[in-house]
Amino acid sequence: MTEDYVIGVDCSTTAAKAVVWNAVGEVQSQDRRAFELAQPRPGWGEQNAEDWWAAACTAIRRAVQTVDTSRLRAICLTHQRESFVCLDPAGKPLRPAMLWLDTRATEEVRKHGTDEVHRITGKPANTTPAWYKLLWLAAHEPETIARTGKVVDVHGFLVHRLTGAWVTSWASADPLGVVDMATFDYDDGLLAEAGLGRDQFSELCPPGSILGTVTDDVARDLGLPAGLPVVAGAGDGQCAQLGSGVTTTGRAYLNLGSGIVSGTHSDGYAFGREFRTLASAIPAAYTLETFIGGGTFNLSWFVEKFSGVDSRVLGLDLTPEQVLETAAANLPPGAEGLLALPYWTGALTPYWDHSARGVLLGLSGIHGKAHVYRALLEGIALEQRFLTSGTEAALGTAIDDIVVLGGGARSAVWCQIIADVMHRRVDIVREPESTCLGAGILAAAAVGVHDSIPAAVAAMSGSGAWFDPGAPAAATYDRLYDVYRDIYPANRALFARLAEVTS
């Protein structure tokens, strides 16, 4: 087959990336274009939705310049989840888009975050789902709601610009928190509470379905073949799951990014505080996710604020993180009695406590920068063990295999710590751009490059290096874990009191 290329586009919180993939998941060409994130007030997060389109256009245009475009079969999008924009009837933004990380709707969560909303949407009450921010708009910017023609997720916005159709994937709209997870359709009651109706949202289609074709004008502008199919994608987490090859129960992906997201496959609907439930990139299935808000963000915070490491002054071709990691690797498991609770950005699964904060427990005069850095690496691993164990208990299913991706996957020290702490082999994905690969997999299956989504996953994804747990270290971490899991319960009331004082 000569026409065997597909385009995966990932419109994340910071940039749009376009990758041209071949039928075995190899990168043929790629480009990335950054855009701005605005935080006009503490806790707010906004973007100009037009920047999503401008960055995606440039990335696509540059990515296809160096390939034979006659071989392109389809394009598919993945994206930052929960983020949305309100548009006027002509499709123009009425205000800046509100992002997943925007926490202004805390009062709406308190008033409206009921057990019934959790049951319907699969999302425990917190400020991430867009529904609470729509309620905030209804209360604080009623003129915006009154003028809104469409409320669209990032995927729906870009699909409309590509095809002219108001249509999106239910695996893209679901994170907004307005979709009934049992039916993959909008819940009219939730929409009505925000003063909206389903005619103000995009039509929902299964992920992996063909939504339409690129319009002639857009195809000419971007250098794409006329009539190129646009395939329904999914949020970045669900696409990362595909790109890392996690399509059956008993396996989980672990994305070591700014936040730490881990997900596992489920054929049936389940909900609980131990995870948040999302529509899978595999139609009619589910992704169950745990989330640690502070991942590599915690490490960057320490490097920037406290480490004082400037490897350039030392003449080293290493990042400060690599220098600290080398020093931390020389320390024993447990960082000589120092434990870190990694709640720098609050606690999500299973506590959903935005008043929770980070803790360094056991500090003494023997501890230095390397100890703190190792404690941060270990604290995230211990927290992930806690979250994974909670998911297993809720589902009654063991998770035996961990597939790691994201920037942290490049750290051999961290991956070994995770293997030792979690008592599981850790496989590293072969392709660093696994999220964008997931979109490419959906595109390839939709147009017949492969017979099905599982067949496309088998052909296009894979793992490379791996780490097995070591017995002595694992035994030490077992004893530390018994201490670690009591840190938050012992401090829960103090976190709440501190929040009252500082609010």
Helix percentage: 25-40%
Characterize the overall form.
globular
Which percent range describes the beta-strand content?
15-25%
Distance between the termini: 62 Å
Radius of gyration: 22 Å
- CATH fold label of the domain at 5-237: Nucleotidyltransferase, domain 5
Can you tell me the CATH architecture of the domain at 5-237?
A: 2-Layer Sandwich
What's the rounded overall pLDDT mean? Answer: 95
Strand order of the largest sheet: 17-18-16-15-21-22-23
What is the strand tally?
23
Give the CATH level 1 class of the domain at 5-237.
Alpha Beta
Low-pLDDT residue spans:
none
Query: What's the number of helices?
Result: 18
Mind telling me the CATH superfamily name of the domain at 5-237? ATPase, nucleotide binding domain
Largest sheet: 7 strands, mixed
The secondary-structure class comes to alpha+beta
Summarize the structure in words.
With 503 residues, this protein is of the alpha+beta class. The protein has a domain at 5-237: Nucleotidyltransferase, domain 5, CATH 3.30.420.40. Helices cover 38% and strands 21% of the residues. The chain has 18 helices and 23 strands. Strands 17-18-16-15-21-22-23 form a 7-stranded mixed β-sheet. A hairpin with a 4-residue loop joins strand 10 (179-180) and strand 11 (185-186). The longest helix is centred in the last third of the chain and has 27 residues, at 369-395. It is globular. The mean pLDDT is 95.
